[in-house]
Amino acid sequence: MDIESPEKLIELLDRHAYLADDGLATAVFLALRMRRPLFLEGEAGVGKTELAKTLAGLLGAPLIRLQCYEGLDAAQALYDWDFARQLLHLKAAEAAGVTDPRRLEGEIYERRFLLARPLLKALETQPSVLLVDEIDRADDEFEAFLLEVLSDFTISIPELGTIRAETPPVVVVTSNRTREVHDALKRRCLYHWLEHPSFDREVAILLRRQPACTEALARQVAEAAERLRRADLVKPPGIAETLDWTEALLTLGAQELDPDRAAATLGAALKYREDVEHVLGNGLLRRD
Amino acid sequence: MTGFVRTLRAAGVAADHERAQGFLRALEHLDAGVPGDVYWAGRLTLCAGPDDLPRYDRCFHAYFGGARAVAGPAATASVHRYTASVADSAEGERDGEAAPATASRTEVLRHRDVARLTEAERAEVHRMLAMLRAGRARRRSRRYESAHRGVLDRRRTIRDALKKGEVALLRRRRHTTRPRRVVLFVDVSGSMSPYAETLLRFAHALVRSEPRATRVFSVGTRLTALTAGLRHRDPGTALDEVSRTIPDWSGGTRLGEELKEFLSRHSARGAIAVIASDGWERGDPELLRTQMARLARQAHRVLWVNPHKGYEDYQPLTGGMRAALPYLDALVAGHSLAAYEELTERLAHA
Hints:
Organism (chain A): Nonomuraea corallina
Helix content of chain A: 40-55%
Strand content of chain A: 5-15%
Shape of chain A: elongated
Domain AAA+ ATPase (chain A): 34-209
CATH class of the largest domain in chain A: Alpha Beta
Protein name (chain A): MoxR family ATPase
Oligomer: heterodimer
Pfam family, one (chain A): AAA_5
InterPro entries (chain A): AAA+_ATPase, ATPase_dyneun-rel_AAA, CbbQ/NirQ/NorQ/GpvN, P-loop_NTPase
Distance between the termini of chain A: 50 Å
Strand order of the largest sheet of chain B: 5-4-3-6-7-8
């Protein structure tokens, strides 16, 4: 697909129900054109993961997701050998009287015994969108080897050889910034800091994603969300939370955000007990 | 465009050559005549974090918006206050070396409050502090090594089976270990000033013994990262360096706010958190309480080092201390060399 300008991209993303501003559209546009990974940083719930999903839909490419966590290692991120099938094959060969170790070795390290984990799968699937989600949760050693994969889009497997992506996948790396990610990795990428959406944009997003939502309700929710974000909470609600909150309100049949319903559904927007107590205790849901 | 990149560097954005190349390549795909395109091409390729963004905006407007001169971050006065005393003690250190300590004198020194030592005595304590080789508690890493007991090592079992033609022996492996991270917060407020230098020297010894697994911050009125400055081999140079970095010597302490900033920008997950402070909290003790609770949920252990703890009649009465107490794994002394040795032992076994 040829996307000739950031403006065109805004339009295409809009068609997939993702409202992007100039900055984000330019970032994605350049990532596609320059074939560079896009490093998205920002608070939780500002739409980083959603962007990767939308991008996959827009490009008609499968989304391959690698969720990072502490202790993530090569066997879970790159590839692993299918031990059970290798053993079965050896047993079968033994039964058939094959004993030549060279031949056996060649056989059990064939591609069919290799389990592709997300990074390898992304290199082998063309086209594809690779989402490396929450890189800040992985150990710093993991960054080093992600950097290796992202620099030349190859993976070398000692027993099999080097696997190279003919067309590199579109890569989106996200971070919630709970930890500083190494500069070498960021340097390989286009860096974009994603902010909470402006009031008007948030209203537009709520209306776009929740067709049953009235303009009045959307404005009230967006306004309440802005107030909550200013309220010094452990985890201020992101756009993901306001969408959930709106959905919860709509499920209860709310036409507007009255304090009782707001309090009853607050759990969709706030995820810490301290925050809920703080908001209810200080009457932050009341409009004045 | 290279002039713009130079301006950015002068303002403190780490826009190196590779990033500058990326900027030029990005412009090839956009319209270099449109300010918005230039703005985004630069921001996406030259910046590396939210801290860079305001600097980038300033430079961009200064450079493309007319006026070209952009000063680097203004060097703040008053931050050099500490340098003088560090230089003094460096003198003292040489004096200390000139007069070799006898064993019994050292033993006495070990237990004395550093705030009450003469310049020469303190220099000697600092010299011994520099020799402190701290062990470190270890945690499981994600790497493996082969072992007699442990989980099945499938890869090696298959390799062996290939060589022998049958599965004769099950190979096993287990996780290796690595040093547990320590995050140390050093209170540099006015009430802690007799201990600040000793604490920073202790911090230096910790960083030197486990550079990859130690993070040091100063707390007072602003959270400041000191780890990079403390990596210098020479304690005097390292102290000079961090003294220049710390913007809030001898002010008050707002530990609650600073812990909050730490917890939102960094993480103490799985680490041993060590707070060195007398607990004279100027901020809201309630805020400190909630932040200590968060820290305790994240960290593996939370230790508090209080110089006054070394005295028998000490009672944790300051507002900050009282707020923090329920969340501590231990409250330890921090007034003498012996106290630091004991703390080191704790870090080795926490």
